[in-house]
Specification:
With about 70 residues, the protein is of the alpha+beta class. The chain has 1 helix and 4 strands; from the N terminus they run E-E-H-E-E. A two-stranded antiparallel sheet has the order 1-2. Strands 3-4 form a two-stranded antiparallel ribbon. A hairpin with a 5-residue loop joins strand 1 and strand 2. The longest helix is centred in the middle third of the chain and has 16 residues. It is globular and about 35 Å long.
């Protein structure tokens, strides 16, 4: 996976894998998110109405985008 900081989104975690089993890619992404979320003192802005508000406005909500 790749982590970008301060790009279009405040934090972008990208996970890619060749193949057609999307659950494997999602599992790798979940592992990366667990590592990032475990960093002491790191908090993300979240709104009950809009989801992750530190995302680019086109990615509001879960802040997740998937493509095949």
């Amino acid at each position: 996976f790749i982590i970008w900081v301060g790009e279009e989104d405040h934090l972008r975690i990208m996970c890619m894998k060749k193949g057609t089993i999307l659950n494997e890619v999602f599992d790798r992404l979940r592992t990366a998110l667990s590592v990032v979320e475990s960093i002491e003192g790191l908090k993300f802005a979240h709104s009950n109405d809009y989801g992750c508000v530190t995302s680019c406005p086109t990615n509001l909500g879960t802040g997740m985008r998937a493509s095949v």
